[in-house]
Amino acid sequence: MTATMPKVLIIDDERSILDTLRILLRGEGFEVSVADSGRDGLLRLPEIEPDVVLTDIRMPGVSGIDVLAAVRESDPDLPVILMTAQASLQSAVQAVNQGAFYYVQKPFRNDDMAALCHRAAETRALTRENRQLKKEIRRRDTSGSARPVGKNRAFLDVVRLGETVAPTDSTVLITGESGTGKEIIARYIHQLSERADGPFISINCGALPENLLESELFGHVRGSFTGAVRDKDGLLTAARGGTFFLDEVAEMSAALQVKLLRAIQEREIVPVGSTQTQDIDVRIIAATNRDLEEEMRRGGFRSDLYYRLNVISLHMPPLRDRRDDVQLLAEHFVAKLSHARDIEQPALTGEALDALRAYDWPGNVRELENALERALILARDGVVGLASLPKSIREPGATPLVGEAAPSNPTLEVIERAYIAWVLRAESGNKARAAEILGIDPSTLYRKINRYGLGE
């Protein structure tokens, strides 16, 4: 029995059953409420907040299976015990598959029913206790290693706002340049949220063609397109009970923006090739390195979707504005990478740290981590010195972003071409690493290389 008096809601259209169970369970220390129909039981559910629901299956109107489905939707951890006078193996299997705690055949033995209700109440109490303990652990972790690394004031303002909004279910929009750690703060918000026990699923909207992205997000039914040999749940369905992170959301086509808007507004989706809606239960966190207000003015991003996403806005500052964090981050990455490679952690020389702090980090935190991974490979005698760092960091003025012939007010294409060329040179032509630093998919980088004639 639980420490406090457990509450049970009994739903049955037979008055004799209600009276019998009321007397039995009150004698066992339960606080008992009754309802003589499934509809009445569901109406009373929010008011009573029971620890156990005990319901007959066969009732006019709203059946016990309907009650079970409604409870599973509103409170998946609430134990529901189903009763029936017409038991069969098939109905028992169906009940358990749909989430019933137990399936009881009438007439039942009073001792068995009492023991079953006690077990259900204890399960409910343990589930609540576990959730509370996990919440407490997550609360304590906000000052520990789970917190994103940094002491810069602007960065800490973002982290604190993330901690404030984490317990809510509000949609969050994270903006900032590529490599600033938008997914890291999104994962941190998830860890501190009520959904931390659920999945954290992410997708890069710029990494997939439109038709494939639609199928990945919303799922599809068999035969909806060539290769669709079976029904497949989308990632929005797979993230049920958790958080769904949409990275590079501005890369979505206009048609997909409409479908995403409907999913957020209605909390339901329609798989590709289907006419049936599916409910979804996810928290949406979106991220972009673009100026969405400018994209709206150009007609590239829907204003109604922007306002749906921008309930809570977090802007990640670039690393060049967090120079007081560079040493802290560098030491963190060296420790992490050394542990991953199972080697003794090397020391960073003062000369190397000075170079790291002086550099402007166009690729932000991601570029810093990649540079230190390279430096760790090249380190000698347990020391990461200046010679271990990429040339672009050792000699930051050696490769100008644009040449002398560049126009005084270059177009975005000129700047993008120059930046991609500069990152490729800094990484000695390593396209996979360059794509990571640029924050784009390798296939996108190859297209841009071809477009700008950077293949030589």
Write a compact overview of the structure shown.
With 456 residues, the chain is of the alpha/beta class.
Helices and strands, with pairings:
Layout: E1 7-11, H1 15-27, E2 31-35, H2 38-48, E3 52-56, H3 64-74, E4 80-84, H4 89-97, E5 102-105, H5 110-141, H6 153-165, E6 172-175, H7 182-192, E7 200-204, H8 210-218, E8 219-220, E9 232-233, H9 235-238, E10 243-247, H10 254-266, E11 268-269, E12 278-279, E13 283-288, H11 292-298, H12 303-309, E14 312-315, H13 323-341, E15 347-348, H14 350-358, H15 364-378, E16 383-384, H16 391-394, H17 412-426, H18 431-438, H19 442-452
Parallel strand pairs: 1-2, 1-3, 3-4, 4-5, 6-13, 6-14, 7-10, 10-13, 15-16
Antiparallel strand pairs: 8-9, 11-12
In total, how many beta strands? Answer: 16
State the helix count: 19
Bulk shape:
elongated
Distance between the termini: 75 Å
Q: What is the CATH superfamily label of the largest domain?
A: P-loop containing nucleotide triphosphate hydrolases
Query: What's the main sheet like?
Result: 5 strands, parallel
User: What is the spatial order of strands in the main beta sheet?
Assistant: 2-1-3-4-5
Helix content: 40-55%
Note poorly predicted spans. Answer: 141-145, 403-407
CATH topology of the largest domain: Rossmann fold
DSSP strand content: 5-15%
What class do helices, strands and sheet pairing give? alpha/beta
Tell me, what is the CATH class of the largest domain? Alpha Beta
What is the average of the pLDDT values? 86
